[in-house]
Specification:
This protein is of the alpha/beta class. α3 packs across α4 and α7 packs antiparallel against α8. The protein binds adenosine-5'-triphosphate (ATP) and magnesium ion. The site of magnesium ion has 4 residues, from loops.
Length: 388
């Protein structure tokens, strides 16, 4: 069986609360271990997972768990120096001739181990070079680090380190409603909150027949990708046609975006009430499009009783795209099916809508009826990840 070392990030700083955070993390890990047919051991500041599953599958399933910063396949041997050297040799041999710079780093969490870390480093390195290792040494910034850790019962060796999600474990009770459109931004916004331990539920406003079914399928696909980071994700698909028709019939087109966003907030608020949620998340970013001004954001959030989280607020488009590519939502987001907001979008959206004007236009609308009709026509789905 192959073992893997899973390192906690910030989690180790949590003092007395650490136990709770670790339990949240294990709640995400355990169903994945079933898929991998693996086992785990919880140690002081890290976890060890053992499984025979293919390493790529292990990597896909474990690197998407919030609260884990990195993963290394580890090789476990006894405290016997000869055995440590033998194991080290097996690990580094495949890299001979690769020209990569190399260093050995030893740690001694078990202070009873008789050889000090620096001595062990030198001893192992000398033996490896005597056996024919030809890699240039770089003690500060090597491409390849052989890590040796003498633990209480055995010694762990690793050369690979896979970056993982980082952040804090998903706390199931901290529910956040993500306004998920089919674009590039909102999935990234949701991911950033998941990374900080938020359990996301996605809310999509669908406007048939103005938006095609493919637009909805695209959102379902995005929600499914985000489910990778929390095992299960609830998606609410709200029928928004009634609201959009009412707005288009009665209101100044330049205020459409703000008016429709205010309705999204009202409906999302009701959904969060039903789901005992804590916040509403959007993919808005200051100044990215004409309507995303600070003034409009103020008007959109006017009477929303939940905090509105806008994790992308200060990011440039290129930075957002980089995250979208990394988490695997980008390719789906750039499919061409238009969202209702781009279809109804006025040629010149107002950049500074006045609240008074908005209130005047809204007084002509039957707000409560429109909201409850939309809620009555909401379809809910539970999505689970596809790990390939
Ligand atoms: P995105 O790339 O996320 O679509 P965007 O840059 O296109 O964002 P807007 O269209 O102005 O920006 O939308 C701002 C935010 O409003 C979105 O990030 C999303 O959170 C929310 N939103 C917009 N349209 C919808 C929709 N149809 N369903 C759910 N949320 C939406
Ligand atoms: Mg959009």
């Amino acid at each position: 069986m192959q073992s893997y070392l899973l390192r906690y990030g910030e989690l180790v700083l949590k003092g007395r609360n650490r136990r709770n955070f670790v339990n949240e993390l294990l709640a995400v890990l355990k169903p994945r271990l079933k898929i991998l047919d693996g086992r785990f051991r919880s140690l002081h500041k890290k976890l060890i997972v053992t499984t025979d599953a293919p390493p790529e599958q292990v990597r896909a399933l474990l690197s998407t768990i919030a609260g884990i910063t990195s993963i290394s396949p580890v090789y476990i041997c006894s405290h016997d120096p000869d055995e440590i050297i033998e194991c080290a040799w097996t690990l580094v041999k495949p890299f001979i001739g690769s020209g990569r710079s190399f260093s050995v780093r030893a740690k001694r969490p078990n202070k009873r181990f008789p050889i000090r870390s620096t001595e062990l480093q030198t001893m192992v390195a000398d033996s490896l070079y005597m056996r024919g290792l030809d890699l240039p040494v770089d003690l500060k910034n090597a491409d390849l680090n052989l890590n040796i850790s003498t633990e209480v019962h055995d010694t762990w060796l690793s050369v690979e380190k896979w970056p993982a999600m980082g952040g804090l474990p998903i706390q199931k009770r901290n529910v956040h409603g993500l306004l998920l459109s089919g674009g590039i931004d909102s999935p990234v916004a949701g991911y950033l909150i998941q990374k900080r331990g938020g359990q996301i539920q996605a809310i999509y406003f669908h406007t048939p027949p103005y938006t095609v079914e493919e637009a909805k399928d695209k959102v379902i696909e995005l929600a499914q990708i985000l489910s990778k980071f929390q095992n299960q994700l609830k998606l609410h698909i709200v029928s928004f046609t009634g609201v959009m028709k009412a707005i288009v019939a009665d209101c100044d087109p330049s205020c459409m975006v703000v008016l429709s966003r205010r309705f999204m907030m009202r409906i999302a608020t009701e959904i969060m009430r039903q789901e005992s949620g804590h916040s509403i998340i959007t993919g808005e970013c200051l100044g990215q499009v004409a309507s995303q001004t600070i003034e409009n954001m103020g008007v959109i959030g006017e009477d929303v009783p939940y905090p509105i989280l806008r994790p992308l607020i200060g990011m440039d488009k290129q930075e957002i795209i980089r995250v979208a590519r990394r988490i695997g939502t980008y390719e789906t987001s750039i499919q061409p099916f238009e969202d209702c907001c781009s279809l109804f979008a006025p040629a010149e959206p107002a950049t500074r809508v006045s609240l008074r004007k908005i209130h005047r236009m809204e007084s002509a609308l039957k707000i409560d009826d429109l909201v409850s009709q939309a809620l009555n026509q909401t379809e809910t789905m539970i999505l689970t990840p596809k790990f390939t």
